[in-house]
Amino acid sequence: MPLPKAELHLHIEGTLEPELAFELATRNGVELPYADTDELRKAYQFEDLQSFLNLYYELMAVLRTEQDFTDLANAYLARAAAQGVRHAEIFFDPQAHMARGVGMGTVVEGLWRALGDSEAAHGVSTQLIMCFLRDESAESALETLEAAKPYLDRIVGIGLDSAEVGHPPVKFREVYDAAAALGLRRVAHAGEEGPPEYITEALDVLGVERIDHGLRCLEDEALVARLVRDRIPLTLCPLSNVRLRAVDVLSEHPLPVMMDAGLLCTVNSDDPAYFGGYAGDNFDAVRKTLGLGEDRLRELARNSFVASFLEHDEERRAR
Ligand code: ADE
Ligand code: ZN
């Protein structure tokens, strides 16, 4: 039996497996520049975050209808459930779809058809987090928040993702303030490729409650002390870090050092279709390669619920 866990860092578009990508391409009459799933899989060799994002955005062309988003989410929820995920806080990237003429309503309603049934169908409770693309403008983020207003009963919070370096959190101060005023929870990717200053800025300027990745906090001792003291959760993604070369090899991943330092670490899959594994696969990989014992794995699983946006009684039930 896999350990019950919550997944807090998961891009739904990053769960698009090659088989489903081809199925949706055929259904929607979209031509993919790959002969078959084998050839597509061969393209999964990444140099860095940007080289991954190029493929990630390219493949999204197959997602066009509500049904596509429902199928995508159901496929993820089935896989996650099989690996012990009991609760998932799921990112989506509306700007990447709206730029292709796919409306906010299509995305949210489509995802919701799977998420709304997920407790009954998969035994997984869910929440949706809408991410802004940080390499798009601050105005575009504000327009996206405006477009989401009819759907806010289905969206628990906002996040910030895409190409990090050169796009500091401060660029999004206004939209984070507006989201806070609407009662939305706030998270942001920071310190994946970007410097530790972006983590500090996400906390101080955007008021985030969790940091997605946060790996590079280790370069700033005072920041580590602050994250420990304030119990700020980090949603780490070990297999992602190896595939995007944030760390050279998994055996050198700093997760054990971070846990020893007292950081509130969680383990997540990020974009599992691209990075070689879902939540349970990430747990297995750190157990085998980093030699984490049963107590450490239980701590990670417990942290995932503590760091979630579940209320305390919901949290207990999910475990
Ligand atoms: N979008 C999807 N996956 C991402 C990641 N790992 N970092 C930033 N943006 C992303
Ligand atoms: Zn991510």
Automatic annotation (TrEMBL):
Gene3D superfamilies: Metal-dependent hydrolases. Pfam families: A_deaminase. The active site is at E192 (proton donor). One of its GO terms (cellular component) is cytosol. Zn(2+) binds at H9, H11, H189, D270. Binds 1 zinc ion per subunit. GO terms for biological process: adenine catabolic process; hypoxanthine salvage; nucleotide metabolic process. Its EC number is 3.5.4.2. The record marks H213 as: Important for catalytic activity. One of its GO terms (molecular function) is adenine deaminase activity. The keyword Metal-binding applies. It catalyses: adenine + H2O + H(+) = hypoxanthine + NH4(+). Residues 4-317 form the Adenosine deaminase domain. Substrate binds at D271. It is an enzyme of class 3 (hydrolase). Transmembrane segments: none annotated. Keywords: Hydrolase, Metal-binding, Nucleotide metabolism, Zinc. InterPro entries: A_deaminase_dom, ADE, Ado/ade_deaminase, Metal_Hydrolase. HAMAP family: Adenine_deaminase. Catalyzes the hydrolytic deamination of adenine to hypoxanthine. Plays an important role in the purine salvage pathway and in nitrogen catabolism. This is Adenine deaminase. It comes from Streptomyces resistomycificus.
